[in-house]
Amino acid sequence: MGSKTPAASAWLIVRGLALVGLADATYLTVEHFLGTIPPCTVGGCELVLTSEYATLGPIPIALLGAFYYLAVFLVTLPSARLTVQMRRRGLWLLVGLGSLTTLGLFYIQAVILNAYCLYCLLSAGITLSLVAVTLASPLRPLRHGD
User: What pTM value is reported for the model?
Assistant: First the structure.
């Protein structure tokens, strides 16, 4: 069994980050629908998670985040229907949109609310990591065994 190529390793890192982001966003979504605030060590989770910015109408932002991370995960999987070029472009598009959204949400926490949510900061860190891995690595084709 040989070692993984840098591209294969990058795809695996992106998948792992997407799964952690999916877990974080899913947890916040469940807490939203249960009407509870998760425990928080930075002291601003309740303000952030109950603010008018935490939802788009009846839809929690966390649910949109869960869909985002799921899409990132799915686009990294080898596919008979999507070419590698399509998968790479899809990943770059998703990560680009995710990073712009993250910047906007971070601005809301820092400037408008002057409060921070630990789980939101985790998501921001994951998206920043996705940007770094996507930009710094040669995301090339995955072979079906990778």
Answer: 0.89
